Structures are given as structure tokens and as C-alpha cells.
Amino acid sequence: MQNPTKPGQAPLAEADYDRLDGLLDSLGNGDAMIVEELDGFLAALACGAEVVPPEEYLPEILGLPDDAEGAGNAPAELLELIERHRLQVEAALAAQDYAPVLAHDEHGHPDGVAWAVGFLRGVEMRPEGWEAMIEEDEFSDALDAVETLAATLDDDAPAAARKLGRRERDALIDQMIADVADIHEFFRPFRKAGTTPQAMRVETVRREGPKVGRNDPCPCGSGKKYKHCCGRQAA
User: Fold this and answer.
1) Is 220 helix (H, G, I), strand (E, B) or coil?
2) Dihedrals φ, ψ of 166, to 5°?
3) Dihedrals φ, ψ of 202, to 5°?
4) Which pTM value belongs to this model?
5) CB neighbours of 180 closer than 8 A, spacing ≥ 6?
6) Do 130 and 52 meet the contact criterion of CB atoms below 8 Å apart?
7) Percent helix, strand and coil across the chain, each rounded to 5?
8) Which range is least confidently modeled, 61-75, 93-107, 182-196, 220-234?
9) Are 24 and 38 within 8 A, CB to CB?
């Protein structure tokens, strides 16, 4: 699929968000994302170590069947707005100047739940790398705020988890924004190196393995000396 965005195209303005919201709604698909959810989803894709191609993430955004690839019959204008916003999210995170697109209630209070759901959907596009991050002690709680907000929509969650007070919700949103910045920085070296935490870990283990002398028994268990077995193959 060709990139519909022209170099130097301006980021989305308020009217563009309204248009994007209208185009997503016009799909008539209850599984299509809303703008707040889309923003969270794109933020997760931008944070992660691996590049997820459009043919994988567009069906998720548009609510297409699991076996669908690409954008289906989505309007070109919709695809252009999605791509412009994706680039905008990437640039803002890279510049450490990202602010999420959040829905607000009639009192002007942010919600954050749809954004959190979208972010977790983005995580699930490449879960292995995120699991490697969570295994790091310093980042073990990096998704806690996102998951707590998303749990308010989970009918199977305890009643207390589904009802958040205003102060608690605001604190979770603030924590969520801070965590996203930290997550983006965690994965930055992996994106730069074009690798993943799990691949880097395998390579590290491989390099730190004990050195085998050429006259030592081959670690493969053949009973031969290393130089006459796997060592000969590696030479």
C-alpha cells in the first residue's frame, strides 16, 4: 500500500479531528475505533520496538474481520487523515512533546478510558517486546495506569475497579501520560538498532556463554573434541 501522506503535510487541526471522527463513524462499523481510541493505538505503535505495517494495523483501526489485510474499501480521505495523525503522534513522542487526544465530559473533565483501550490494542499487535519490557524491574508497572483505566469497561472486573472517582481518574491520566513518555524512551535504542528486547536478550545470552576450548569436549554431546565437531563447522 502506498503512503497517502505527502511530505511536509500539516498535522491535524480541530476541524480535521472532527472530519476524522465523522469518517470513522460513517463506516457504519461498531468495531471501528473512535478518535480517542485511535490516538492511544497509534501511540502504542509509535512507542514499540517493532514497526507494524499498515496492512496489519489498518484492519484493527477500521474494525475489519481478523483475516482482513489492508484498508478494504475505506475512503482515501480517511486513510490520509489516519496517516497524517500517525506521523504527528510519532513526531510528538520523538520530540518528547506528546499530548494525548482525550474525550471530555460536559464539565470539561477528560475521560481517558478509550485512549487506554486503544493503547492496549496497540500493545497486542506485538506483545512479545512489551512483555520483555514488563520483565524489567524499573518498568514492571509501566502499564498499570493504562490497564486500570481500561478495566472500567470490563464487565468482569470488580465493581470498585469499574468506578473511578474524579481525583483518581485524573491521577491515572497524569500517570498514563508520564508512563508513555518513559515507555517511548525505553524502546528508543531498540528502534534505533532495528532490533527487539527479546532478540537483544537472546544475543546477549549467546555472547555470555562459556567459551569452549578447541580441545575440550564438544558441548553438543557428541563425545568428540570441539575442534573435530562443531568447532570445525564454525571455523
Assistant:
1) coil
2) -60, -45
3) -60, -45
4) 0.79
5) 43, 47, 93, 98, 100, 119
6) no
7) 60, 0, 40
8) 220-234
9) yes
